[in-house]
């Protein structure tokens, strides 16, 4: 009997958000989970209707992006691609995953996000040709940390497992990440833009460290994060990787793009 095709598998899948009830929870492929998620998550605007730097959708009549980071002369990163808009089920699942504790069942979402990440990279492979290393945006997990586990790095570890062998994508899953955060900083989410910028260019910049610049020297890097809002965090991570780590190029990939003007 022939193996079921992807369309048949999709028809049997429980749907993104109901992954715990899916028959392919533990045995699904990146393609299956990515395509399943795409049926319910909010897509980005067409390529011609969004910013080529930050993926922000242009308002009617706009010809340029209102995000201040996109026009900065010292941005240190080239672009950020998001899988989808931060809304609906994707927003709820990301929030549950980020706010879960080290023993929570919500941490199981790392495997699903890992598959979605690999599926996104596979589906857009031409945009990522020649990438040398895919790394996690760093999380501080030491004393007095908001979060005691590295939620983005867990996604990369899962993605590296889910992509199978031979590995196509060079995820950084070594014991010591190529960039680390050495202290806790204030959460950016409730802040206004100017507050976020002060926080990013001050405490966050001071907390970022590249332990071994030889690992990143001359490399083309992708930094993975969960949500892209204005790019200030990615800008500081890229600055450290370029100025301290000698990286030749830094770009970003996020699970979700937070639209300007939406609460949350």
Folded structure, characterized:
This protein has helices at 6-12, 30-38, 88-99, 109-123, 151-162, 193-207, 213-216, 232-244; strands spanning 80-85, 133-136, 180-181, 208-209, 220-228, 249-257. With 264 residues, it is of the alpha/beta class. The protein has one domain (6-257). Strands 1-6-5-2 form a 4-stranded parallel beta sheet. Helix 8 (232-244) links the parallel strand 5 (220-228) and strand 6. The relative contact order is 0.16.
Helix-residue proportion = 25-40%
Largest sheet: 4 strands, parallel
SSE order in H/E notation?
A: HHEHHEHEHEHEHE
Ends: how far apart?
Answer: 49 Å
Instruction: Give unreliable regions as ranges.
Output: none
The domain count comes to: 1
Quote the beta fraction.
Answer: 5-15%
The whole-angstrom Rg is 18 Å
- With strands numbered from the N-terminus, the spatial order across the biggest sheet is 1-6-5-2
Broad shape = globular
The chain-level structural class is alpha/beta
